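Quick one, T. Sequence first:
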Amino acid sequence: MQPQDPLAQLRDIHLPESVSAWPPGPGWWVLALLLLLLIAAITLWLWRRHRSNAWRREALAALDAAFQEWQSEGDSAQFLQASQVVLKRAALRQFPNYDVARLSGTDWDAFLDRQWRKPPETGFASLGLAECSYQSQPELAEPAQYSDLCRRWLKQLAAIPC
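Structure tokens:
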């Protein structure tokens, strides 16, 4: 009897199965959970920030509407009154501990000028608004400049943190 070739009895080499991507290891689950929590926290922060600045967007829209009305009708008294109402409402909301509601005339202009973070060259007091408020037909020297000053004052106010 002839001995068989022992090499013929060997089986072919079998490679192990490739490493599966599913299910991921525990570290990946923890990382995914942390990522979801981070996304939820950022979304909540952005939503609260958006809501806390809603008053500013409304005030700017009301100021723009008053300025547009002045451009179409030219009534300086109505524009001045509407813009002062917008500024007063914003100040009442932003500075609840101050006695803002009683301020008028030069005291009101001085209050507005004190609240600037970075004061402009031309403030509210320099525009002579205290005198214009009591005239039947006030003439604003620069309504566009006044409107821009009001917009900048509203934008620079800090939002109250949530």
